[in-house]
């Protein structure tokens, strides 16, 4: 899988959302290899999107299409500055439910000192984590630039996410979380998407 992370500051969240809706209607049917997109705007106007494709080649073909070029020109006019992009095929998915049904998505960005160990920890005890935090419908982690990452966590709702955060973590899972936190180079940046835009081919 290939993921492109796109972000910037938008001047009009509603128009940005409408532009993505137009992409789904007009461009998605021709975007061979597109697997889905998670996007949204925070309360302070920060836009972030994770676009998933079968491969880097599929994403490249899409980006080179005339329709995509026209759409991006229109969308980027809603940004107050330049967009930033991160491309990667180093992706970890953990799907426990239907992420497209999420009513709240929290995106985290940061840097880790040991991506390989972080990947191993993410693979551990998935069933136990799913039982402990049933409001989490899935995680998507894109890793790039030798330790940088963007992680999207899909929740049934923001209220249930906050309630889950207050639960006491079982010792075994707490130990894993402590080790994961020890790998972080500073605190992550959080982007709360209270009205996420969730798109998939189906």
The total strand number stands at 10
In whole angstroms, the N-to-C terminal distance is 18 Å
Largest sheet: 5 strands, antiparallel
Mean pLDDT: 95
Beta-strand residue fraction: 25-35%
The CATH architecture assignment of the largest domain turns out to be 2-Layer Sandwich
Helix content: 25-40%
| Lateral arrangement of strands in the main beta sheet | 4-1-3-2-10
Q: Briefly note the CATH topology name of the largest domain.
A: Alpha-Beta Plaits
What string gives the helices and strands in order?
EHEEHHEEEHHEEHHEE
| Uncertain residue ranges | none
SS element count, helices: 7
| Rg from Cα | 17 Å
Structural class: alpha+beta
| CATH class category label of the largest domain | Alpha Beta
Shape: globular
Work out the count of structural domains: 2
Protein name: Antibiotic biosynthesis monooxygenase
Organism: Kribbella antiqua
Description:
The protein has helices at 13-26, 56-63, 66-76, 115-123, 126-132, 158-165, 171-182; strands at 2-9, 34-41, 46-53, 84-88, 90-95, 104-111, 136-144, 148-155, 189-193, 197-199. The two termini are 18 Å apart. The protein has two domains: 2-88 and 195-199, Alpha-Beta Plaits (2-Layer Sandwich); 91-192, 2-Layer Sandwich (Alpha-Beta Plaits). Helix content is 34%, strand content 34%. The protein has seven helices and ten strands. Strand 7 and strand 8 (148-155) form a beta hairpin. The strands form two sheets. It has a five-stranded antiparallel β-sheet with strand order 4-1-3-2-10. A five-stranded antiparallel β-sheet has the order 5-7-8-6-9. Helix 1 (13-26) packs antiparallel against helix 3. By secondary structure, it is an alpha+beta fold.
């Amino acid at each position: 899988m290939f993921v492109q992370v796109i972000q910037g500051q938008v001047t009009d969240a509603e128009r940005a959302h409408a532009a993505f809706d137009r992409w789904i209607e007009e461009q998605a049917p021709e975007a061979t290899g597109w697997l889905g997109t998670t996007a949204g705007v925070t309360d302070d106007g920060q836009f972030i999107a994770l676009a998933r494709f079968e491969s880097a080649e599929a994403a490249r073909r899409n980006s080179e299409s005339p329709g995509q070029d026209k759409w991006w020109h229109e969308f980027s006019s809603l940004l107050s500055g330049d967009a930033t992009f991160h491309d990667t095929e180093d992706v970890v998915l953990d799907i426990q439910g239907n992420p497209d049904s999420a009513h709240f998505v929290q995106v985290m960005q940061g840097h880790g000192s040991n991506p390989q160990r972080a990947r191993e920890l993410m693979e551990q005890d998935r069933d136990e984590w799913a039982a402990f935090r049933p409001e989490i419908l899935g995680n998507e982690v894109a890793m790039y630039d030798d330790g940088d990452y963007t992680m999207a966590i899909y929740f049934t709702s923001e209220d249930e996410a906050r309630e889950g955060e207050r639960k006491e973590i079982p010792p075994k899972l707490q130990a894993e979380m402590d080790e994961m936190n020890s790998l972080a180079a500073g605190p992550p940046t959080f982007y709360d998407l209270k009205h996420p835009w969730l798109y998939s081919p189906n």
